[in-house]
Design brief:
By secondary structure, the protein is mostly helical. The protein is 78% helix and 0% strand.
């Protein structure tokens, strides 16, 4: 393999990762997050080079083995599932904290009203 082929494969990997993870309507899954979470480690390039790799065309004769493509897709899907599970745990914690706050404030209001009635 020549250096040019390696660069073309790196561009193809960058495009695949972006295709698996990027969502234009979701700010937490933007190009910068794709770079921060995956491309920086897998492609070993900086953000500007990553963006250039996404824009540059890849020749049709460059292909990745199927097990690399499957591995990349599996890695991205696993990360997404883990991230969503972590967010749902955080949301549960927030809702529990809100319920506790409401209970505490309700209890505090009841005590204050009871004191006022006693006077």
């Amino acid at each position: 393999m020549s250096r040019k082929e390696n660069i073309q494969r790196r561009k193809l990997i960058a495009k695949l990762i972006d295709k698996f993870y990027y969502r234009p309507e979701n700010a937490s899954r933007c190009h910068k997050q794709v770079y921060r979470r995956f491309a920086r480690f897998l492609c070993s390039v900086n953000y500007d080079t990553f963006m250039d790799d996404l824009k540059d065309p890849v020749p049709d004769n460059i292909e990745l083995p199927y097990y690399i493509v499957d591995g990349l897709q599996c890695m991205v899907e696993t990360f997404i599932r883990h991230h969503e599970a972590r967010l749902s745990r955080q949301q549960r914690r927030i809702s529990i904290a809100r319920r506790r706050t409401v209970l505490l404030t309700d209890t505090g209001l009841k005590r204050r009203n009871a004191r006022r009635e006693m006077k």
